[in-house]
Amino acid sequence: IFLVEDHAVMRDALAVLFGFEDDLDLYGMAASAEEALDGRGWADCDLLLTDVSLPGMDGISLSERVRTERPGFPVVVVSASVEPSTVNRAEAAGVQAYLSKGQLGTTLTRTLREVLADAPPPARSEGTSSDLR
Question: From CA 99, how far away is CA 19, in angstroms rounded?
Fold first, then answer.
C-alpha cells in the first residue's frame, strides 16, 4: 500500500495500524500528490490510499493521474468530508472505495482487503515480489 496523507499524525497512525496487519504492508508514503508522483513509489505497489484534501493537487486528481498511467489500478480515498459532490467526483475518477475518516477504525482494513482481492493482478517489472502491499 502506498499512502498519500498530508497530516503527519495521520500518516504515523496508519503506519502503526499497518504494522499490526500481517497481510497489509505499507510500501511507502508521501505528504502530497506531487511528492507521490515525483517519487513514483506508488508505481511498484498494489494499492494507493490517499486523502482527498491535500495541499496542491487533491487526492481525486491524483487518482485520475495514477489510473491514467495504470488503468484499473486500485485506489481508495479517505476524507473527513462526505459531501455528495466529492463522493460523486471520486466515483467518476474510478476509485474503488471512498471512506470517511470518522469510520476508518471499523472500515479501513476490511475495505483494503476487499479492494485488493477484487483487483486485477498488478503489472510488475521482472523480479519483483507479488506480496500484497
Answer: 20
